[in-house]
Structure formats: C-alpha cells, structure tokens
Amino acid sequence: MTLEGNGSGLQHRHLLGLETWSADEIKTVHAAARQFREVLDRPIRQVPSLRGVTVVNLFFEASTRTRVSFELAEKRLSADTVNFAASGSSVSKGETLKDTAQNIEAMKIDMVVVRHRSPGAPQFLTRCVDATVINAGDGAHEHPTQALLDTLTITEYHPDLTGLRVSILGDIMFSRVARSNIYALAALGAEITLCGPRTLIPPGINEMVPGGLRITHRLDEALEGCDVAMALRIQLERQGRQLFPSVREYHNQFGITRAHLDQHPDMLVMHPGPVNRGVELASDVVDHERAVILSQVTNGVAVRMAVLYLLSGRSLTA
Predict the structure, then answer these.
(1) Which class is 2-143+300-317 in CATH?
(2) Whether this model's pTM surpasses 0.85
(3) Residue-wise pLDDT tens digits, 30-73
(4) How far apart are CA 191 and CA 214, in angstroms?
C-alpha cells in the first residue's frame, strides 16, 4: 500500500485550529484517513510510516478518548510515543509550560500533541519549540481533530457537504468542538444552525464565518429539515455558574429523544462524547442505529493517523 500526497495538500506546518484551513486541506486529511481506516480493518493494524519519529503527548487536562485515540494512532504508525500528564510531573512543582516543552524537546522530540485548559497554549508552544505542534483541545478555543473526524464521519453518509443542513445543539458557549466544527463545516459548504439556551450561545458567534450562522433557541426549529444533528456535552465543569434551571429542564427543552428520530427519519445523530445519557440524548437515541457515535470514535484514530502522517512529511509504504 502506498499513501499518495505526502502532505502536499497541506499549507500548515502545525494543526492549531481550523479557522484558516481550506476545504482542500480538510479533504486531504479525509482522503488520507480513509486509507488509514483500511489499515485499521486489517488483521495486523500497523504501518511503519512514522518509524523513528518521536511524539510526546502533553495532556494538562483530563482526557480519555482523545488521549487514547492519539496514542493508538501513534502506535499504529510505529512512532515512538512518550506520554506526559501534568499530575505527578514537574508542572505540579511550579514548572512553566515553556520550560516543560523545552525540556522535553531537548530529549529530541519531533512532534507534540498538546491539550491545555488555556486557549492559545498550542500556538504559544510553536514559539518555544521546533517540533510540529498538534492541538488536542485548548480551553474553549478549538478541538480541530474532533471536527476533522466529525466531518469525515458525515461524508460516509453524505459525500458532498455542500448545502448539507447541520444543526449543532447545546453548550455552544464553552465548546471547542463547536468552534472547530463551525470552521470545518463552513469550509466544506454546509449550512449550519446553532441551537441552545440563550445563556449558552455566545454573543458575536454569528460572525465566525462569512455568511453567518442560523441561530435558534427552539429545538424543533433546529431539527426541521436537518440532515445531521450534532449534540454537545453540557460542560458544567467550565461554567462558573448555573446557566439553565436544571438538567431535567435542559433535556426537556434541548435533548434529542426517540420521538425526534421518528419525526425526522433521515436525520443522523452525532455526539463528541462522553455522552450524558438522558441529558443531551435520550438513552435509546444513543443506542439507535442512526446515532453514529461509535463510528466517530473509530474514525478518530484514522483521522489522527492522517494528521500525524501528513504533518510529519513522511511517506508510507506497506
């Protein structure tokens, strides 16, 4: 197997966010990920494309899905992987992000995957180290690989996103997933609707992309004619105060139920995880065949393999 392109379609050295990424670049990642998805279906799920490349995973925030997904992607590519967690490290003793990164790079690291609670931390790292930096989520700013895997998953059902109607539902205010998806979906030509409580729709978000976004505070209106409904996790840990009356009322007003699936028989349901069953999605919706959440997880490994490979500039033969 030979993976063509070798990063020629990417104009960026780092993946910090998708605000400046073109449709062609996103499609380049998708094309590479589809080929890596074939690798994941083999009896031996490994290729030697990043042999000799060392990747450090710097996770300053708790993570399960994203961290494990990156680790698997690196191992499937035969990279040498170093995992770093803030707890129990020198960070807990007062070491700065800059010093941590520079000390790790002194160990001859080629690529850095970073998750941090502060927006802009990955961009800051690019000024401190020579390694390629990949953003695995920075505060409420962006989560670019999540949007890349989300849009890849959508293309399995709708190959052309031009004019596709996608509704992003819930906690828009504190969601880095929402922001990255808005940039990616807009670049690919989708029509985007945002829906949630007024307290969770940030002012000025309509100006994020040319042409603006449709905004509603009524779920039925957001789902009317919707092709893909993307529910977001309510991030209580980021909210400094209660921004809606109760979890039960939130589900009653904005949670997707089986009745919604019955009313919209062609609508796909997505969620970046972890899902709060009975809050963003009713339990029987999570387990429904039109909920593609597990496909998102599998595609996450393939997309992260593609991002690592394309940004490394290595060629793949197997």
Answers:
(1) alpha beta
(2) yes
(3) 999 999 999 999 998 999 999 999 999 999 988 889 999 999 99
(4) 8
